[in-house]
User: Fold this.
Amino acid sequence: MEKTWRWFGKKDKITLDMLRQIGVEGVVTSLYNIPNGEVWNYETILELKQYIESNGLKWSVVESLPVSEAIKYGGANREASIENYKISLANLGKAGIKTVCYNFMPVIDWVRTDLEYPLEDGTYSLYYNHIHFAYFDCMILKRKNAEQDYSPEVIAKIRALDQIITEAEKSRLIDTIIVKTQGFIHGNIREGDQNPVEIFRQLLNLYEGTDKNALRENLKHFLSEIMPVCDIYEINMCLHPDDPPATVFGLPRIVGNDEDITWILNAVDNPHNGLTFCAGSLSAGLQNDVVQLAKKHVSRTHFVHLRSTEILPNRDFVEADHLRGRGNLIELVRIFEKANPNLPMRVDHGKTILDDKGKGHNPGYPLYGRMYAMAQLDGVMETVKNEIRQGLI
Assistant:
């Protein structure tokens, strides 16, 4: 597979020169300065593409060309937003960029409650604590009828937590769940926003009355509209699974298991309607056998995120070492490498190791932690390539 790396543009502390030195072949990036729903013009795309190429790399994947909330919930300006999206896709196609990763998660992308969870070996990882998440939902956000989504045992635990949690811990929970994990990736809330909790409430209100079936149909409409452009320019759209693959904040989630993925691929049965196979997101759901999902959907997988999770008691989970956990990345490399040796993959997230801490990297995207994980998986890929050459798989 092609070794790619998520790069956050010219302001990223991790430079393209550094990426070339550590063996990266392709860049995964976006036009982060353009607000959601606005057109990406051809000249701006081409300028960034040429800048990447001048550093000896290629722009392999757009992650992401964000889908505006109006498209997801079916707002009044949905059709105008889709037209803008089609223009942006055409401009990407004209520039020769053929792979687009996107998601259809309402309001919020990935959810964690701790961005620096200490591990026994002295490193740090991303962590989801279900009680802390439920506390934010019920006691800080105070979402209407939120308590109905949790068991009596969970409600008892969050009330006990309320007796001991400090104001600083509450602020850190707000910052982690709806600010730091969102703002650097076309998020609806950014650092420095006043009263992010109220902004978040207003965003949730947009989806009042939108259930799973409605969200599915909105995705189907969006895909049906953009597929003609994808056909012209041979652009592969790669839908990212929900992270985690479970309902959060009462919002519908439609990419969490095999039934969901199958429905989406069949709803618009076009080879350009494909999947970003994120082993980390999918492995965070006990309902998912990640290896079987990869085998079933390999032909419609156009981009791969390689990371793994370990599910803990009480619905908690932690991002695991890339060679451990439920992701079973070694077997996934066998499946995808054999099917398509040119398939772009990126090491997704990474532990905070050595002097990564305090360097100001985006959450989940440290230099050394990702470099370590990429080295692990580079060795796996070379081993698998040798297995293929010898006819062992």
Notes: The first strand starts at residue 2 and ends at 6. The mean pLDDT is 95.
